[in-house]
Amino acid sequence: MKPLTRQDLAQFAAAPAADPAEWIRVQLDTGGIAAGAETVYAALEQARAAQPRPFTLLRTGSVGYSFADPVVEVQAAGMPRVHYGCLTPELAPRLLSEHFGAHRLLDDHVIATRRRGLKLDAPVTHLLVGDTGAAASSKTEFFQFSFQEELKRRGLADRVQVVRAFDMGIYDEGAVVQLLPSGVTYTNVLAPDVARIVTDSILGGRVLDDLLWKTPDKQVRIVLRHCGQVDPDSADDYLRRVSGYQALAKALFTLTPEQVIAELKVSALRGRGGAGFPTWMKWQLTRAQPARQRYVICNGDEGDPGAFMDRSVLESDPHTVLEGMMIAAYAMGASQGYFYIRAEYPKAVERIQRALDQARERGLLGKNILGSGFNFDAKIRLGAGAFVCGEETALIASIEGRRGSPSPRPPYPSVRGLWGMPTAINNVETLAIVPAILLQGGAWFASHGTDTSKGTKVFAVTGKVRNAQLVEVPMGTTLREIVFDVCGGVLDGKDIKAVQTGGPSGGVIPNPLLDTPVSYETLQQLGSIMGSGGMLVMDQSDSMVEVAKFYLRFCVDESCGKCAPCRIGGYQLLQVLDRISRGRGAASDIALIHRVCHAMQKASLCGLGQTAPNPVLSTLRYFGEEYQAFIEGGPSYARKAGKAAAAKPTGATTPPIPVPVPAKEASS
Questions:
Q1: Is 396 a domain residue?
Q2: If both were cysteines, with which of 197, 280, 494, 532 could 539 make a disulfide (CB 3.0 to 4.6 Å apart)?
Q3: Model pTM above 0.85
Q4: Domain containing 187: what range?
Q5: Do 325 and 335 fall into the same domain?
Q6: With 90 as the cut, is the pLDDT of residue 20 above it?
Q7: Which residues of 148-165 are buried (b: 16+ CB within 10 A; e: fewer)?
Q8: Are both 49 and 97 inside the same structural domain?
Q9: Residues 550, 636: one domain?
């Protein structure tokens, strides 16, 4: 294949390839595949052969709607573009005949668009209806019937279809109606409003201001901007449809390495791996070291239980991460890169390897890239599933073929890293942001977020949540907004108890503090950390002592054992928690927990041991009464105490127990 030139990229940017007129995109990430997306894809192929249709069947990654897997997106002539959730192979023939043939949407599968309009700029063709109230009985069918009857009375039944939605993206706002294709959305709709909507909006083209939902979508997609939009297996799709590698071309031909670093400084991008170290500073420190070779590493060793942010990005948009790595290499003067990806992510490994092969074929990796004189290549190294290898020095040891265990710092990897050479390690999310910053500008990125935490953050929201999914929100969005406004609240309408952030290194944040804006500083003040983006929602049935035990046991199992504070302290701490949970604890155990935690924080070699006490300390801080209940009356008494705590009015909490919050390691 002929290597691409700078002129080729310029032509792609000037005239990006358009989507085919009609298409179906099947989201084939690991979550979708586990839910049956591959069988859905095969069924659509078979149905297309049986019912010949001119549409194009496409593969893509996840848009983030994990709660609705398998998810497909459909575009047909004369129809609004929609996502269908929980699609099954049996529905494939019906989807083709109804959507493409009769121009009708399928009930109970449409996910309402989050791009909600404020004006009716096109004739209404479909109404999505859904009851989002907290009551157990749904009025969705009532409103569907009411609209259908009113449309019949006005002679509009053949022109406008009324569809029961799978998810409206708005919660606890009564009956919600979305008018397609404009996306105008009405909330708290009552029976008398049905005739008004038909008369004023459908016939008159007027928006009902008293019903209009004006709140913009909480999500801002920067990291996830291409996820669910491009074929992760196709470099051509990335190059032609979303103007891929334009940021790299801009860096190579219009910016010096120093200017790239300066743009990153303006953006105030901080490492998204957890500690929030300024990205520009890491790059500058690496570049400043005199060396014959420098390295850049993408840390894809995502090990937090329940986290899937990095996996989704690697699987859905691999070329963006590769482009970010190449820009980082150019900025710091590196000529070799490594993707360190855990072996339990075979789809991510497969797609990154394909991206590397395709980029190499097109002259985007190797010698004299785009004729610029810049040389760079990259390889994949597999992690064996050791959580500790997410720590920078342990990761480097693993790549070098040594046992993955941390080393004392300084020297930091930016000074002495892989094979003794200056090395910059950035996580997947950090590198995925870089091309957007170069194309849109550092000031644009910094316009999102808070004064000290700029931009957006991706979270994998799981646990006792109604709609578990991948979300991307600006820094400063509150935890309550993420859980309730984006993810629909707690599963089965139960009361929320706490949210755990930061994985095994993080802490729990109780219900009364969920209005805290998310940032590196605020979460640390609460005794937790940002982490890589795991977010676990818990309801009143969850025992905080058991939660602390779960995360501590994980850290004990994953400890490399190199240093005594982590190896011995973690084990001793787990024994104390186990004793308490079995009703054999003593009042003196609380003081013992604090002493062991303090020793681990101060003396452990790496971040694993230093932050392993966080779940224990944060549960003690906010739910100390549960520990006392286990100590005083055993598990049965603790369950009664838990039920009594669940009956507390919203906002009630136990006064926090002061706990030292350890300084986090400077890694990304």
A1: yes
A2: 494
A3: yes
A4: 115-215
A5: yes
A6: no
A7: bebbeeeebeeebbbbbb
A8: yes
A9: yes
Find where tokens 């230093």 sit.
Answer: 610
β-pair type (336-342, 295-300): parallel
Query: Cα separation of 89 and 41, whole Å?
Result: 8
Tokens of 443: 């000031």
Residue 222 lies in a domain: no
Together in a domain, 250 and 155: no
Of 413, 428, 446, which residue is a domain's last?
Answer: 446
**What is the predicted pLDDT for the residue at 275?**
77
CA distances from 340 to 143, 399, 425 (A): 52, 8, 10
164 within some domain: yes
CA distance 226 to 432: 10
Coil, helix or strand at residue 623: coil
431 and 578 co-located in one domain: no
Q: Which residues contact 426 (CB under 8 A, 6 or more apart)?
A: 271, 273, 279, 282, 296, 297, 298, 299, 324, 325, 328, 668
Q: Domain total for the chain? A: 5
Last residue of a domain, one of 446, 475, 501: 446
Asked if residue 390 lies in contact with residue 357, where contact means CB atoms within 8 angstroms, the answer is no
> Which distant-in-sequence residues (6+ apart) come within 8 Å of 32 by Cβ?
26, 62, 69, 70, 71
Other beta carbons within 10 Å of 384: 11
The per-residue b/e assignment along 609-639, b for 16 or more CB within 10 angstroms, e otherwise, is bbbbbbbbbbbbbbbbbbbbbbbeebbeebe
**136 band by pLDDT with thresholds 50, 70 and 90:** low
What is the CATH number for 85? 3.40.30.10
The DSSP string of 156-177 is -TTT-EEEEEEE-S--SSSEEE
* Structure tokens that stand for 225 in this block: 């901007």
Model pLDDT, residue 473: 97
* First vs last C-alpha separation in the chain: 36
Residue whose entry in the numeric block shows the structure tokens 């942001």: 433
In a domain, 3, yes or no: no
